[in-house]
Amino acid sequence: MKVLVVGAGLSGMVLATALKRTGSAVELIELHPAWQVLGVGISVQGPALRALKAIGLLEACIAAGFGYSQVVNCDQNGKVQGVVELPRLNGAQYPACVGMMRPALHDVVAGAIRDAGVAVRFGTTVRALSATGDVEFSDGVRASYDLVVGADGANSRIRELLRGPQAKPLYTGQAVWRAMVPRPPEVKARHAYYGPRHKAGFNPVSQTEMYIYLVQNVQGNPRLEPARWPALMRELLADFGGHIGAVRERIIDPERIVYRPVGSLLLPPPWYQGRVVLIGDAAHTAPPQLASGATIAIEDAIVLAELLAAMPVDEALARFMARRYERCRIVVENSWQLGEWEKTPDAPGADATALIQASMKALAAPI
Predict the structure, then answer these.
(1) How far apart are CA 287 and CA 257, in angstroms?
(2) Which of 364, 244, 305 is nearest to 5 (CA)?
(3) Buried b (16+ CB within 10 A) or exposed e, 312-323
(4) For residues 107 and 65, what is the distance between their CA atoms, to the nearest angstrom?
(5) Distant-in-sequence, close-in-space partners of 214: CB < 8 Å, separation ≥ 6
(6) Helix, strand, coil % (nearest 5) of the chain?
(7) Whole-structure pTM over 0.90, yes or no?
(8) Cα–Cα–Cα angle for 304, 308, 309, rounded to 5 degrees
(9) In what order do the strands lie in the sheet with 272-273?
(10) Cα–Cα dist 113/13, whole Å
(11) 3-class SS at 294?
């Protein structure tokens, strides 16, 4: 089977690796002229670790990051209000989650691609395509494939070609800040602080570092100059004490900060037309409240590869939708709802704890 994977992000790299190992002829293309690993840190949740275990990457992720199995909920001054024990989906000997630097996770997955013998063609995208798998690349070359997979992220070119420019993530009225800071030795789990204006917290990613995150309620989707990021983030964190207050003044380098407006998209099914299918953020862009966008993107890749190895393409795509839509809907819609409650915490029926617990229970189920 000849497969073109468009986009060398997490879902595209995992899919290319898994397909190559099952004997498919895989081509992987990437728009950028070289690897561009955006972001500072990421929480690789239990379901994502379970999916990565399927292609032999669990141990490498644990070695490259910081494992933990709790989320500690605190007031704005760091006083502990509750501790959530996270399920160890890969067995008691493994942590429930792993905090990682995004470049570290990229290196683990890129290493698997190289080991599988998948080459990445950089500086290339798709100019035009048909539902039958005929493709014209940006350099004018034409080719035909048994399957074309759009794994090209929230701003997907393949999605635009299939569904038009109107199918894109919508701004949610929030932005997320992340900044790298030193990790105090006593920080051994993910923490969430609930302040009067915003929610913040931190996630350890190595023996020496963690990242502070802050979810800001902000209208108008403002664009901010990076030079202003450190001072603005310190001001937004002024409400918080505890470990956040202790390291807040260490936020000084805009190169170690990521500021990103939050978008949300759940593409109506089906996510395929003929022999072209969308996966990951191209089909479902989740806000960060459940920290599960990467999880469902990686799961998409593992499930699609498994199905393609077992049955014809048409049947595999139909089965893919049956297995993936509801699970991804839960993550996108529940993440969006949590964000709405963060903006209006006094809304009738708001119960973030119950919704998070229900979401995590759903994600713990087999894929």
Answers:
(1) 18
(2) 305
(3) ebeebbebbeeb
(4) 12
(5) 176, 177, 178, 198, 199, 200, 233, 236, 237
(6) 40, 30, 35
(7) yes
(8) 120
(9) 120-122, 25-30, 2-6, 147-150, 276-278, 272-273
(10) 7
(11) helix
77 within 8 A of 44, measured Cβ to Cβ:
no
The residues, ordered by sequence, that sit 6+ positions from 125 with a Cβ below 8 Å of its Cβ are 6, 29, 31, 137, 138, 152, 157
Q: Which of 155, 151, 191 is nearest to 263 (CA)?
A: 155
List, in order, residues 6 or more apart from 346 with CB less than 8 Å away.
none
Residue 70 buriedness (CB in 10 A; 0-12 / 13-18 / 19+)? middle
Per-residue pLDDT tens digits of the chain, which is 367 residues long: 999 999 999 999 999 999 999 999 999 999 999 887 777 889 999 999 999 999 999 999 999 999 999 989 999 999 999 888 888 999 999 999 999 999 999 999 999 999 999 989 999 999 999 999 999 999 999 999 999 999 999 999 999 999 999 999 999 999 999 999 999 999 999 999 988 888 999 999 999 999 999 999 998 878 889 999 999 999 999 999 999 999 999 999 999 999 999 999 999 999 999 999 999 999 999 999 999 999 999 999 999 999 999 999 999 999 999 999 999 999 999 999 999 998 888 889 999 888 988 999 999 999 9
Task: Give buried/exposed letters for 146-166 (b at 16+ CB in 10 A, else e).
Answer: bbbbbbbbbebbbbbbbbeee
- The DSSP H or E segment spanning 194 is strand 190-194
| Cα–Cα distance measured from residue 267 to residue 288, given in angstroms and rounded to the nearest whole number | 17
